[in-house]
Amino acid sequence: MTVLSPTPVLTVCNLCVDARTPEGRRRVLDDISFDLNLGETLCIAGESGSGKSVTSLSIMGLLPKASLQVASGSIHLGEKNLVALSNRAMRSVRGGDVAMVFQEPMTSLNPVMSIGAQLTEAISEHQGSEGGTAQTIARQMLDAVHITDPARRMTQYPHELSGGMRQRVMIAMALSCRPKVLIADEPTTALDVTVQAQILKLMRELKQEFGASIILITHDMGVVAEMADRVAVMQNGRIIEQDDALSIFEKPTQAYTQELLAAVPRLGAHTGTDGPPRVSPQAATAVPPSPSPILHVRNLNVTYGSPARWLFKGKPHPAAVNDVSFELRPCETLGLVGESGSGKSTTGKAVLGLIPFTGDVVIDNRNIAGLNARQMQPVRRSAQMIFQDPYASLDPRMAVGAAIAEPLIIHGLGGRSERDDRVAELLRRVGLQPDAATRYPHEFSGGQRQRICIARALALQPKLIVADESVAALDVSVRARVLDLMLELQETMGLAYLFISHDMAVVERMSHHVAVMRGGRIVETGTRRAVFENPQDDYTKALIAAVPIPDPRARHLKDDFSERA
Q1: Distance from C-alpha of 323 to C-alpha of 336, rounded to nearest angstrom
Q2: How many CB atoms sit inside 10 A of residue 3's CB?
Q3: CA pair distance 359, 370, nearest whole angstrom
Q4: Could you list the residue range(s) of the whole structural domain that residue 125 is in?
Q5: Looking at residue 305, what is its pLDDT?
Q6: Quick one: which of 233, 231, 256 has its CA closest to 246?
Q7: 185 domain residue, yes or no
Q8: Residue at 524 is within a domain
Q9: How many CA atoms lie within 13 A of 541 on its CB side?
Q10: Which of 8, 87, 216, 389 has the highest count of CB atoms within 10 angstroms of its CB?
């Protein structure tokens, strides 16, 4: 266990930040105070909009001046009050004494600069090292974050690296100048569970090696349990609770903290059961399962790239999906799990005829192989899709009522008043008020937007829904409510879900059957109980073992086990 020094490296005292709005100033951070001690990992936890990222941007001096400004308070790094520094003085602190790892590495890295050029730029700016010396330091940092063949990676560009490797590059860049404070803002949110485990382990190792103090910002309480020495819980721009990690998890004093912890899906919570828990208040009238499949997939194959291009490449592209077969019945959920690039989303798109494929896909007794767009239209009434990003799934210029009604118009169902009634009914069904129909997507939270997307998917009364990472971008409590909604709709409407996710705990909660994909193939399939309680494939075992456990005590048990192994 880390031995902490009581010496504060960073002190935030009574920090207040205001936002400029058309109605005037609005406080978004209110009286934030905390210390970050030498060698400590402080996790700032809370849902979207709680003020976590604004706090980190305030420390970095990166608040957008047109919309946000520090109203009062101080941020002391040693003797320096960062709030009082000029932009020029702050540039020497930023990246040197305080560094930051952002949530999305692809948007944080310059797409037209090589990895080596971006690393050496930071090293030259803050250490004064030039030429070969900067190159050597950059290669050493890539090696420190366990990137293979660092000399070759130096010549590559961000798009040539995987998400996990790009995040490692960001960590290497942040640590290259040996900062006193490393701020990591949701550094693993977009990563697969195994890559997330590698990044968290890497951050623990580098903290020991480089002696940095870490502020880790996250809404994932499993990550908090894995990493935190101390936790600050934020809600509505305030720190409502602050204590050591064990006390927060075992004796939370605030109702909001208790709700956050209760909403965390825990792997193993459904051990011994054959399916998801019943959540519908109309359970007595729930639709009974059917023995006939609504979806039958046989020998599905998908290959990206045209044959014409293969002639010039010398060999065909590898298959993104290779000989995949499964069945799905009404009232059942098949969880499709695996890492990025395993073929999960490609399978989901092929099942709905959104991309070319070979093989057979039978939806509601109709084989869609070879059907054109016009022939597919009747099939769309039986099968719909919920995408990962609800904001990108909705037209920002279209009121949500019009977006929900659009499928009804396309299929010529009902008159204007009937469609309005149907939209109001669907909004109520997903927990929103009918007057939401006149508002636009940007006026809703992420969880509300996903509910709108679910309402749109239900407009045609489908029998099958493909949910592609449909809750991955949501906060833990919002995610729990959306999952409950999906289970309730399944029970009362007889829906079948192809539930695509890399979150093993969520899949365990939602699924009746599970298929594990790797390299475009299904490597293991079975009932939820069989796959999670008695996995046969080593890859499945690795996925399950990598899931963060929302219990700080388990972290030390896992570390002890790793050392013995």
Answers
A1: 15
A2: 5
A3: 10
A4: 105-178
A5: 63
A6: 231
A7: no
A8: no
A9: 5
A10: 216
